[in-house]
UniProtKB/TrEMBL annotation:
SUPFAM superfamilies: Homeodomain-like. This is AraC family transcriptional regulator. Keywords: DNA-binding, Transcription, Transcription regulation. It comes from the Bacteria. It comes from Streptomyces termitum. Residues 181-271 form the HTH araC/xylS-type domain. One of its GO terms (molecular function) is DNA-binding transcription factor activity. Transmembrane segments: none annotated.
């Protein structure tokens, strides 16, 4: 599937969507290839998604932190779960592919450490994947088209999964807690979550953060925010959205929006609805 849009300021931006191999579904969301030929610098507000993102670039440079000399710059980047929006940008041309991994899948695929080390962090993928990510990036850049690139991603991810240390697998209790939070869309008290898993609150928080990347409480906030974005975008009023998404009241919803995205709900939705909106939802 190919999606086109006009880049902010003109130029052409394209998205190329591909389904991963059936053996990877659930662990990996649809692949998103992209090619931006805007001609002018672009920025996007990236809202927390509850997923680990691996972006492999093979043309252009990604800027983290807005314009200015202090911004970090990457060709490729891996991002653990984050609980606050961040600004990503580029100089007008960018080419690459993004993989969104369920954290339990990323814990096994990335291997060798705690996902807490990637929580609210962006870093070079070679720091966690070693040279295999660079080799994959080179093969993707040389491939003649997106069908071939998506096939290469299937091949690489299946091989990495097969080679992963079985001991580096998310604990069943942590996996169940992750499922329960998603099923409740974040509307679940952490004490109740701990009671339902049979672990103490502190033990659950420590193991969850190690294997998922952030605490259950912070993930619950992300999930509630994402549901609220969907409800408001669909036309539901703010007060009703607050009630169905587990916020105390409308002011609580507004505070959470401001804290997690930097914008109150009205401004966020107004920016998202414009033709040249410089944002994505994670």
């Amino acid at each position: 599937m190919v999606r086109h849009r006009v880049c902010s300021g003109g130029g052409r931006c394209e998205w190329f969507i591909g389904e991963p191999d059936a053996r990877l579904r659930g662990a990996v969301r649809p692949y998103r290839g992209f090619r931006a030929r805007a001609g002018v610098p672009q920025e996007r507000l990236v809202v927390p998604s509850g997923r680990v993102s691996l972006l492999i670039g093979f043309g252009g440079e990604l800027r983290v932190g807005g314009p200015g000399p202090g911004a970090a710059r990457h060709t490729s980047v891996v991002s653990g779960l984050h609980s606050r929006a961040r600004v990503l940008g580029h100089g007008g041309r960018l080419h690459g592919v993004e993989l969104a991994l369920a954290p339990w899948a990323a814990y096994r695929l990335l291997g060798g450490g705690s996902l807490a080390d990637l929580g609210d962090v962006l870093t070079d993928p070679e720091d966690v994947l070693g040279g295999r990510c660079r080799v994959l990036g080179e093969r993707l850049a040389e491939a003649p088209g997106w069908a071939e690139r998506f096939a290469l991603l299937d091949e690489a991810l299946l091989a990495w999964t097969a080679a992963a240390d079985p001991a580096h697998t998310v604990a069943p209790v942590v996996m169940e807690a992750w499922r329960l939070l998603h099923r409740a869309q974040g509307h679940l008290r952490i004490r109740e979550l701990a009671d339902r898993t049979g672990w103490s609150t502190r033990h659950l928080e420590n193991r969850f953060r190690e294997q998922i990347g952030i605490t259950p409480k912070r993930l619950a906030r992300v999930l509630r925010l994402r549901r609220a974005v969907g409800e408001l975008t669909a036309g539901r009023g703010a007060a009703e959205t607050a009630a169905v998404c587990g916020f105390y009241d409308q002011p609580h919803l507004s505070r959470e929006f401001k804290d997690l995205t930097g914008l109150p709900p009205g401004r966020f939705l107004a920016a998202a609805g414009t033709a040249d909106a410089a944002w994505i939802t994670g």
